[in-house]
Amino acid sequence: MPAAPYRDEHLPRYTSYPTAPHFNGGIDAGTYAGWLKQLKAGTTTSLYLHVPFCRSMCWYCGCHTTVALRDGPIVDYLAALRGEIALVAGELSAPLDVRHVHFGGGTPTILEPADFIALVALLRQHFPIHTDAEIAVEIDPRRLGPSMTAALATAGINRASLGVQSFDPVVQKAINRIQSVEQTANVTTGLREAGIAAVSFDLIYGLPKQTLQSCSDTVEQCLAMRPDRFSIFGYAHVPQFKKHQRRIAEADLPDGEARHEQAELMARLLTEAGYVRIGLDHFALPEDPMAQALAQGRLHRNFQGYTTDPCEALIGLGASAIGKLPQGYIQNEVVIGRYAERIADGALPTGKGYRLTPEDRLRAELIERVMCDLTVDIDAICAQHPVDARVLAPSLRKLDQLAQEGLVAFDGSRVLLPENARLFVRKVASVFDAHLDQPPRQYSRAV
User: Half-sphere exposure of residue 411, counting CA atoms within 13 Å on the CB side?
Assistant: First the structure.
């Protein structure tokens, strides 16, 4: 297809705009405290809590996490996290309206069951969490036992995201993640029996030694468990930034064409099984809130990927966690020791951030709508922003070029991706990115 030359291009995933590599040290703890104070009463808010520990390292991992074979570092970190919750809450001038809570990692369920329950209780003490709030947690099925499952239910967890990646034993060995179908099925059943009915599976294509057959087999094995949602991500091989990825032989990785074929095969199998294809990499059953949000034009994108979350503010808690307030982005210190030191000193652990300009807000909305809807009306979006639309002239020229190549339909205002170009939506979104050619560039393959 015409888009083939872009398969190996490296582009942002656009879970934010500007993307995290362009955050800077000009946003400090004082700036963040001021932004928190300016939040009005009843501001709809999401909380993200980062737990940066795992019991073993999966070699494909691109997350901020570290291996903890003992519980001591986890206990110390939990104390710092509790301290940050109190510090952030103390800066607020009025009660917020928390509609979403997400525990990510790492492995959030590495905490002791009683500690997890107490942590959620502490959140409820400091933040008014809405009775209908979605409270989600990322789970490694290899590490979840009955006591932790019960604790999740007690804490009010109502959505679970399970890491699967691949059930192919050859691929699992190549990525240092041995996980059986039976383990995953037992955890899924246990969660549902505990009352946590909303279950999502994460899969990856482009892994070492992965084949079309192994992709097909994994999807079929997952379908037998009928999760509500799937996320299917392309493996991002960045060994220059993630040293453990150097254990993966580049010769074992599929090329751009093979990655494309794997992604499309998995998508076809899921849509044939009744799942709605959402944006770049998500799939949901028709009755799932995400499928409904897509149909109603209410789909959004944040650091967890596609989401139904329309909240006005996102507060990130934990080392490396990123938040977004109306004024801009904030990222905590990435290094756990530095994060804990800042909190011990009674200071917000802000490491860097970004203050949004009116032009950033315009470009962010254009990118989000393309990523979510695969279409956008540029004139209609521009009419909602106090920005001279002429700043988009370079973007329009790029869109004209993509239209000539058959990647989009473009009439001067409305952009539309054909279905066979869906996997190249990041390329289309990138035409609106004014920071794309600025260093640093740390991006994954477009497909």
Answer: 6
